[in-house]
User: Fold this.
Amino acid sequence: MARLIHLNGAPGVGKSTLARRYGAEHPGVLVCDVDVVRTMISGWEHDPDAAGRSRTAALAMVTAYLSTGYDVVLPQLVARDDQLARFAAAAAAADADHVHLMLVTDPETVVRRFRERAAHGDDAWTAFATASWDAEGGDDALRDWSGRLDRMEAVRVASTDPDTTYDALLVALGDDL
Assistant:
């Protein structure tokens, strides 16, 4: 049965990095990064509704791809149960499983990783996300979001170093190491 492997977690915790690695090591898996989809909408930087439309487009893509019998890995921060339910419904519509994994680490590590990515990222999304988080309260907002995610029901995967975290992801999914 196909799976929607939802990698959730705070900004900078490693969702996209793990998703790309999982896709690279599992041929046929669709890596559906909603943030990348968002950058495909012309004028997205100045369009507050682009976020919602990109998520809706990604949900349609996820359902269609799962219907082919292949897995989708989705690195996406989702902190509201109603939004999480949309992804579960997309998987159900394709007769697929929804596997919700939460990548977790302490709030100070989240802040450090986020700032490292901001300092070394040269893409439009990283610059936009950094400015958005800074406008929402910067490091304090990142710490707050880590706490909000702690309340969500999900399989927890400790985000430490890339290799150990990836191995823990495989164990959580029941995949062979």
Remarks:
- DSSP finds eight helices and five strands in the chain.
- The chain has one domain: 3-172.
- The longest strand covers residues 97-104.
